[in-house]
Amino acid sequence: MFLPYDHDDFDVFMRIRTREDFYCGTLLGGCGKQLTAKRYTDKKCHFAHRPPVHCRRTRTDEASADHLYIGQALGRWLVQEGQRDTDITYPDLGTGPGGAVEARFGAGRRLIRVQLSYLPAPAWKAARAQLSGTHTNVQWAYGPHSGRGHGKAQTTGHAIRFTCRTEGENRVVYVGTQGTDGTIEWTTLDTCRLTDEGIRTPYPTGTDAFPGIAATAVFPLTPGSVAFTVTDEGTSPDGPTRLLYQAHVQPTGSVVVRARVSLPRSVAPPLGHRLHVLDGTPRLHLLTAPAEGAWLIRADGFTSLPAPTDPRWPGLRPTATPRPVPTSRSEPRAFTVGMTRVGGEYGHLTPQEYSKLSKTQRRRYWQKVKQRSLAEQNAQAASGKPSARSSKAFPWAGPGITKHEVVKAVRDALVSAARRQVCVGWHTLAEAAGVKPDDLSDLARTSILVAVDRSAGPEDVLLSSLVVSSGSTPVPYFDEILGRLGRPSGLRPIELRRVWRTEQARAFAAYAQPSDHGDA
Predict the structure, then answer these.
(1) Model's pTM, two decimal places?
(2) Are 148 and 516 within 8 A, CB to CB?
(3) What is the rounded CA–CA span in Å between residue 286 and residue 309?
(4) pLDDT in tens, 133-154
(5) How far is CA 339 from CA 271, 335, 345, 368, 398, in A?
(6) Bridge-partner residues for 349, per DSSP?
(7) In 3D, which of 198, 81, 195 has the Cα closest to residue 139?
(8) Which of 261, 67, 68, 235 is nearest to 146 (CA)?
(9) What's the Cα-to-Cα distance from 294 to each of 132, 204, 222, 256, 317, rounded to whole Å?
(10) Which sign does the torsion angle of CA 26, 31, 34, 40 carry?
(11) Taking each helix axis from N to C terminus, what angle separates 442-454 and 403-419, rounded to the nearest 10 degrees?
């Protein structure tokens, strides 16, 4: 079982379970003893052993059970492919369970082996010779830390890879085709087929062909001649670096057709209430598919027109322009101490500003902060309403912590999450920053994430898109973050969710770590 870290998700998880239901998995290298599910509000929820504790399990991170998720997914998939006599095992390669997953089927004569831990070339060759001698067909696949298939991609043109990603309360298994250039086209097992050679993905040679559909012809289109509007049907991956948008497309002088538009993940997503023109020389792929979806157009970008309609493309009508979301919060104002202007939110000084103050000015600064805090507390007590400017709103309003430190810690935690291809909640970020989640108001959280995204990063991705609320939904102030960063804001919920998902994909792609250790 995958225990949610957030306390709200923990409550949902426990509704159909009791605290007596959990044991330390022996297939995880654990002791098999009973565990207790611990709920926390100031740190991650987790399982804990009941004393006395004598467990030798060394890995407890979210990837430590990936071999079980892969084995479970392979078993279900083989049954869907018509194999009834499947057997899933997890051989110990010297470091405990999890080094490999083996799926036997076809009366035990066929084998798919997913190599998860790294094997030196001699050990790999010996294992391959042994398994080939006892099975009629062996397909070798590779996990994130197993190397580049020992040259398999170079010798056969491609290698099959496996990885897992956290999505909501689950670890989702992905399978991909690695080409000779090292790029991997990821998909899910339900899109793959079982052949005589084993697993066959929709990308048999590591190309960027549209999943499961062959292009019968490709034609270049005249630059500046194709306009489109996106629908509300969301996006789907088109390889690791591109996204597909369901759209209405109209070439100049032609009729409107339904098509899929493929754009790089690094491009900001097109909005439904705008009319867009494809940049460069778009390429039309005619596909062997039903007429409704037989058009695929790939382009390197697009330009949004200022007007919602254009006489060159009379058939395109974008959705209604969303109304801006009113905000009740005004921008925080700075105040002064002596002759020195104190910048930042509610009297906060940056480390650079604070270092320039004399001892007298620093003493007066903290006196001013204390006076304001007391005034706000008195006003709150008199009104009976919570104050958005209380010391709780911004934990750096008092001594001992700075906003710079909080922002840096949150950014580092989000970069780590992006590299691990997961989303996180504020309990994780607050723990990384050394503060309690209750000490961070929505105003403070917004300010922190805006500061994080204003920092230099690859391709200007939004790390704030990796922060999720309970139920794995966008944080309620994500639209405000977009507006403060100069991005389109005031979006409808469906458009906001599309932007959020797209920015997540861009962040994962930008921070994806090379998973290969080289050929052995």
Answers:
(1) 0.43
(2) yes
(3) 27
(4) 888 889 999 887 776 554 555 5
(5) 47, 11, 18, 13, 21
(6) none
(7) 198
(8) 67
(9) 43, 21, 20, 14, 22
(10) negative
(11) 70
